[in-house]
Design goal:
The complex is a heterodimer of chains A (499) and B (552). Chain A has 16 helices and 21 strands. Chain A has helices spanning 7-18, 20-24, 131-140, 184-189, 200-213, 217-231, 257-265, 271-281, 302-317, 321-338, 360-376, 381-398, 420-435, 441-454, 474-479, 489-497, and strands at 34-38, 40-42, 60-63, 69-72, 83-89, 99-104, 110-115, 124-128, 142-148, 153-156, 172-176, 237-239, 245-247, 298-300, 339-340, 343-349, 354-357, 407-410, 413-419, 467-468, 483-484. The longest helix of chain A has 18 residues, at 321-338. In chain A, helix 5 runs parallel beside helix 7, helix 5 (200-213) runs parallel beside helix 16 and helix 11 packs antiparallel against helix 12 (381-398). In chain A, strand 18 (407-410) and strand 19 (413-419) form a beta hairpin. Chain A is globular and about 70 Å long. Chain A has 499 residues and is of the alpha+beta class. Chain A has a five-stranded antiparallel sheet. In chain A, strands 1-11-5-8 form a four-stranded antiparallel sheet, with no helix packed on it. In chain A, strands 14, 15, 16 and 17 form a four-stranded antiparallel sheet that branches. Chain B has 552 residues and is mostly helical. Chain B has helices at residues 6-27, 33-38, 45-54, 59-72, 75-80, 84-93, 95-101, 109-113, 116-148, 153-201, 204-211, 226-242, 244-251, 256-287, 297-305, 310-346, 352-374, 383-403, 413-432, 438-455, 464-478, 488-516, 523-551. The chains are: A alpha+beta (499), B mainly alpha (552). At the A-B interface, helix 1, helix 2 and helix 6 of A face helix 9, helix 19 and helix 21 of B.
Chain lengths: 499, 552
């Protein structure tokens, strides 16, 4: 029997074999203009109370009122270091004001107080080390002491075990020079540095990865890997907001977003049916889905993105026309209840109470939810009507965009400050709307302006800073100018780069 | 010495027709490549356990181990009990892991665990190794048939090769499983018949102890020496744990629990059957003390003790032993050629239909190569020696990165490569050096391979993409597999499988009754009739149960 190979096939074999040894020996990360200098820890020993769980069983340490932690580096300052940021990443969902005091470890000089209020799972916090303390930080290390807070604060640590968080989430000094790397955010997105708590945050990251994966095999691989961390073996395992290991259960309508991506990558996964059942159980007689029951039902803009969009996808992928109705009714209810005059409210009751007027991130859910749902809905008069609503909403929102491309945290209240997560989300919606022909060039231009405006807020390693904290502290927390890093925003940035 | 008679040949022909029929019937159930190579993950633990046992014991047992039993006695059983341990180890360390990998070929995971080149290297080298290994197995059945009949070695090898290729090509994994179960029944009853006959002919245990006292001890001869036994046990455990068909049984199981249960069931069979298989050649030393070739002890005893018809059943049993191994090997080797080479390197976007067609063509190619190659195995120095050489040189370096790769997170891709290349090189050097005994050479090779692989873990990779990939893989191994919900489609499928078992058992029962009837006055004939009746009762039970379920 003669066996023939084409030239291309021969090349494929030859290349595979020729690179075998080289790749088998691994390769180093490409050179970056920033460096993570991992800290050596002491005093962070922790035992998890029974029933508690740290995401993915990763190694963690503890800071409490009784337990001070020391971080040290025992190395000289690397060449070309101009700036240094200290980072640690939360392994718990904080529901209170929590403040740490940072001092040099030997001389005891106070460097700063470090605010971790309402920290989310898998959220890194950073502290710029003033130039005068950099030398001491390297030579002495630092101590972290809790000065406000009642509960132990768990954070990810490195260990010799196999269960170690990605470097970006380990305690480290981020050292960098003046020149910034434009695409560093992609390094974070295309790594486990974009892992987030299961629900809307992880869903945003995956949605961005899914869009990016149409043009990038690396994005596709990372998306598959991250999905596998949660949905492996027909299951769903994650750490809920109470640090409890949760298996195959869905707690809120905001947790439906990840299923939109799962449906598009693994349409036979059995948990899709669980998500559908959850939505059906939370629908009223009209088919409007919301958390709560009776008069306690609260409709929120989040559900445009976290419910309507997944349902539209599921309807298409599983050929379930009944889900189209739920998707549309859920959207329509938000338009009717939450959009009033020139304002879009983030939440309200079906009885007419309204909250969080023109809150940028709330508007981002609204617009992105509309845009993404419209992409997947079948053609109908209702879709036409929703498209018109979407265009009108966008027109309103664009009037609030500032000259630097950003939006204020509350559009009409400049004193609440610029806010980057809302800006990134709105820009992503504009970009998606333009790509699919729902919006015109004006929207595209506005999205581009937003992208330019966001650039100064990117950390040297690519995380977006300047985001308002997750909405656990009410309006007061949103209006006091407190800003943090939010890795989920990497998903928004992915939408912005697609041509 | 008697040769086969007309009735014996008809038993063999009937057996071949049943096997081919099963293959053709099961082919109708194959809808996609997942069915073809994994049985749609719907194989019950009983069938899986039987298949796991059947795919490890070929005619080599009756030829090579029969020779050891004849020469050295009970120690052959001691040696063969090494097969129990891989299954026991699998219950605790591998059954869950393999199911959780979610793979469709046994080397597919190497890309996620290490990298793409390693998957390719192990796929290609594994296929070559498998082909050589299968040639030896087919060669053994050729030897057996030639010794027992007037059929030439070439005709036996080609005939057996063609039938096993035919049913595997058509029916895929399901044909492998169902034929394994039917072949198990034939093998069990046929070999069981010979046990009381040889016991009586040898004058019972007391006479055997009097005539061959040294052979009635568990550690007689060179193979009873501690170093030899330790080496053989270690080698066999590694070989079985890394055997592709062994791994395939676990990832094709319905659930993780089923994987563990099938391992336990096969361990039970590995404990019981060596006694059934090796007692007759042990007794042959008393009955036929002057055999020139000990490897022919089993077949010689069959010819001596079995009447016409029953001898045909025994031949069918011998075919069963080898064909069950070969069909499984063909299927799993074709899965690697299709999934890991064709789909991975040449046609990543191949349609389901194309993949299935390629799967069948690959099975055909494997069957053809093995059949032709088996004709030339005698040049390697006999079945046992050739098998030992293959195992000693290639098996350990090829398997260590596979089985330890799912247990240990830290060893690196370069460790896997170094294990494969340096381990093989070391194996060759030591096998070439006659001054080094097989035991020492093998133990050194095992220790070397495990050490070099483990040491690579002391140098963690700084490649974040690699670490991320491996972390995902090991995380997946910690998440229990959730089986999909049962549906009406599953019920219908199960009914069809039961119907197939019913028909196959019915025909097998008829075969035993027809072959046993002429000898109905002899013990062997009575046993054959009893076995046939049992098969017919089982077939009737399956038929009526299916009817009752349908009427409900």
């Amino acid at each position: 029997m003669n066996i023939f190979f084409t030239r291309r096939q021969m090349l494929a074999i030859a290349t595979t074999m020729a690179t075998a040894v080289a790749t088998a020996f691994g390769s180093r990360d490409k050179k970056s203009n920033y460096q993570y200098l991992l800290a050596k820890l002491s005093g962070s020993e922790a035992t998890l109370p029974e029933g508690k769980y740290i995401p993915f069983d990763l190694s963690f340490g503890e800071i409490s009122l009784r337990q001070e932690v020391k971080l040290s580096w025992n190395q000289s300052i690397p060449d070309k270091t101009e700036f240094v940021r200290l980072r640690i990443t939360s392994a718990t969902d904080v529901r209170e004001t929590l403040v740490l005091e940072v001092r040099t470890a030997i001389s005891g000089k106070k460097i700063a107080v470090w605010d971790f209020r309402f920290a989310a799972l898998l959220q890194p916090f950073e502290l710029e080390i003033p130039a005068k303390h950099i030398k001491a930080v390297f030579s002495e290390g630092v101590t972290l002491r809790m000065i406000e807070g009642t509960k132990p604060f768990w954070f990810f640590t490195g260990s010799s075990s196999e269960k170690t968080a990605p470097q970006a989430y380990l305690p480290h000094l981020l050292v960098y020079g003046e020149e910034l790397q434009k695409d560093a955010w992609k390094d974070r997105l295309l790594s486990f540095g974009s892992l987030q708590t299961f629900g809307w945050q992880q869903g945003i990251v995956w949605d961005g990865l899914l869009d990016l994966s149409k043009h990038s095999t690396k994005a596709k691989t990372v998306l598959e890997q991250q999905l596998n961390l949660y949905f492996a073996n027909n299951s769903l395992v994650y750490c809920n907001l109470n640090n409890i290991k949760t298996i195959e259960k869905i707690h809120t309508v905001e947790s439906i977003l990840p299923f939109a991506i799962l449906a598009q990558t693994n349409p036979t996964h059995p948990l899709l049916e669980t998500a559908i059942s959850f939505c059906e159980a939370h629908a009223n007689t009209l088919g409007v889905i919301a958390d709560g029951t009776g008069n306690n039902r609260m409709v929120k803009t989040e559900e445009c993105y976290t419910v309507s969009y997944p349902l539209a996808v599921l309807a298409k992928v599983l050929n379930r026309p009944d889900l189209v109705k739920l998707s549309i009714e859920t959207l329509k209810s938000r338009i009717e209840v939450l959009e009033k005059g020139n304002s879009i409210y983030q939440r309200g009751t079906e009885q007419g109470e309204l909250f969080f007027e023109n809150w940028s991130r709330g508007v981002a859910w609204y617009l992105l939810g509309l845009a993404k749902t419209l992409v997947h809905l079948p053609e109908s008069t209702e879709k036409e009507s929703l498209t018109i609503s979407f265009k009108k909403s966008v027109e309103k929102v664009l009037t609030y965009q500032q000259h630097n491309g950003l939006w204020y945290n509350f559009f009409h209240q400049p004193d609440t400050g610029f806010e980057t997560s809302g800006t990134a989300g709105i820009a992503a919606a504009l970009k998606v709307g333009f790509q699919h022909g729902f919006l015109n060039e004006t929207a595209k231009k506005a999205a581009m302006n937003a992208s330019i405006g966001l650039f100064p807020y990117l950390a040297p390693d690519g995380y977006l800073t300047g985001t308002a904290q997750v909405n656990k502290g009410g309006e007061a927390l949103q209006k006091n100018g407190f800003r943090v890093i939010s890795p989920y925003t990497l998903g928004f940035l992915a939408h912005l780069t697609i041509k | 010495m008697n040769k086969l008679q007309a009735l014996d040949y008809s038993a063999i022909i009937l057996y071949m027709i049943i096997m081919s029929g099963i293959g053709i019937f099961m082919g109708r159930l194959v809808k996609n490549i997942n069915d073809y190579f994994k049985g749609g993950s719907g194989v019950s633990w009983i069938a899986g356990g039987i298949s796991n046992f059947m795919t490890k014991f070929s005619t080599v047992i009756f030829v090579a181990f029969g020779g050891i039993a004849y020469t050295d006695g009970l120690v052959a059983i001691t040696v063969l009990w090494a097969t129990i341990f891989p299954s026991l180890i699998a219950i605790f360390f591998f059954a869950k892991r393999w199911k959780r990998t979610g793979i469709m070929s046994p080397v597919e995971f190497l890309e996620t665990r290490y990298n793409a080149p390693i998957r390719q290297i192990f796929s290609w080298s594994g296929v070559v190794f498998k082909l050589l290994d299968d040639m030896i197995k087919l060669y053994s059945i050729g030897l057996f048939v030639t010794a027992a009949s007037g059929i030439s070695f070439e005709t036996a090898v080609i005939g057996c090769g063609v039938v096993v290729t035919l049913y595997t090509v058509i029916g895929g994994f399901w044909a492998v499983i169902v034929t394994d179960v039917v072949q198990f029944v034939i093998l069990f009853f046929a070999t069981l018949i010979l046990v009381p006959l040889s016991y009586t002919a040898a004058g019972g245990i007391e006479n055997m102890q009097a005539v061959i006292p040294q052979n009635m001890t568990w550690f007689n001869g060179k193979k009873g020496m501690p170093l030899w036994l330790i080496t053989y046990y270690a080698l066999l455990i590694i070989r079985y744990l890394g055997n592709w068909t062994f791994i395939q049984r676990f990832y094709s199981a319905k659930t993780e629990k089923d994987g563990q249960k099938l391992a336990a069931l096969s361990a039970f069979f590995f404990f019981i059957f060596p006694v059934i298989f090796l007692f007759p050649p042990l007794a042959a030393r008393v009955i036929l003390p002057n055999l020139q070739n000990p490897e022919m002890a089993y077949v010689s005893l069959c010819l001596e003790l079995l009447p016409e018809g029953i001898m045909g059943l025994m031949m069918a049993a011998m075919f069963s032993a080898t064909m069950s191994v070969l069909s499984a090997e063909y299927n799993v080797t074709a899965s690697v050629l299709t999934r890991d080479i064709y789909q991975r390197v040449f046609r990543p976007n191949a349609s389901s239909k194309e993949s299935l067609l390629v799967g069948r063509l690959m099975t055909l190619a494997v069957g053809a190569i093995v059949t032709i190659g088996a004709l030339f195995v005698s040049g390697f120095g006999g079945a046992f020696e050739a098998n030992k050489l293959l195992g000693g040189v290639f098996a350990v370096p090829m398997i260590v990165p596979v089985i330890f790769g799912v247990l240990m997170r830290k060893p690196q891709p370069w460790g896997a490569l170094a294990t494969l290349f340096l381990g093989t090189l070391l194996g060759f050097v030591m096998n070439a050096n006659k001054a080094i005994s097989w035991e020492v050479a093998t133990l050194i090779e095992i220790a070397f391979c495990i050490t070099i692989f483990t040491v690579s873990g002391l140098f963690p990779s700084k490649d974040s993409a690699y670490n991320q990939k491996v972390d995902t893989f090991f995380h997946k191994l910690t998440v229990p597999f959730v089986p999909e919900k049962e549906t009406n489609v599953n019920d219908k499928f199960r009914d069809t499988i039961k119907l197939m078992y019913g028909i196959a058992f019915g025909l097998t029962g008829l075969m035993f009754i027809i072959m046993g009837f002429p000898s109905r006055n002899l013990i062997s004939g009575k046993l054959a009739l009893a076995a046939g009746t049992l098969c017919l009762v089982s077939a009737s039970f399956l038929y009526f149960r299916k009817r009752n379920l349908q009427s409900k």
